[in-house]
Amino acid sequence: MICAGRSVVCFDFSLSPILPMHSEGWGFSLYGEFAILNVRGSAMASPAIRNFMKQQGFADEPSALCDMHFEGLYFQPRIVGSLIVVGIVLHVAGYMRGATDLILYSTALFFALSAVLWWNVIAPSLNPFEAFYNRAFAAPRGRAPLVPAPGPRRFAQAIAAAFTLVVGVALLQGWNVTAWVFEAFLVAAFSMLLFGKFCLGAYIFLLLRGQISLANSTLPWARS
After folding, report:
1. What is the residue range of 29's domain?
2. Residue 104 — very low, low, confident or very high, per pLDDT cuts 50/70/90?
3. What is the greatest pairwise CA distance in the chain?
4. What pLDDT shows up at residue 44?
5. Is 59 inside a domain boundary?
6. Residue 120, CB half-sphere, CA atoms under 13 Å: how many?
């Protein structure tokens, strides 16, 4: 397997150990099943990306692999975040127009999102978003596949699952104010995640485990 790009060339040697080899102007590492060739002057993973990966519970990786892994991890929140916005738009439109059918569509969407997210928490190895990404994007492009989510990432998904469930119940009961409050929390959390490279749920997970120094070291602006 070969994948060529501006700053990385990957070959699949089906090897598991990490065997770094270096020569002047070149860096060559075997990582998992992928060999990564970094050319001098190629872009390195930003501190914010490395902090995000650490926050999610993943080990440190070579820059090229870290960037590819980061892009893969964003596949799910981009879809879920977009669907949350759709659900909110349906809710607001239904409320303003007095259209109960739109509110029912919004309710069904939030319940569906909650169900999928709870499934990801309970069975991380069967995450449908990651399975689709691995099949449709990672494998064809020679990228490292996504692995089951570690504890911090699962905890963040559990919070999102709980919040979307509360929104669904609130809409079903006609508690619009409650729905708006939790929708606002979801928008804020996904905005921080997608635009700030900061996962509030994973950060809270580390704090609850007493890993305060580690948690603070994963903030986007933190420097190791």
Report:
1. 1-43
2. very high
3. 69
4. 64
5. no
6. 30
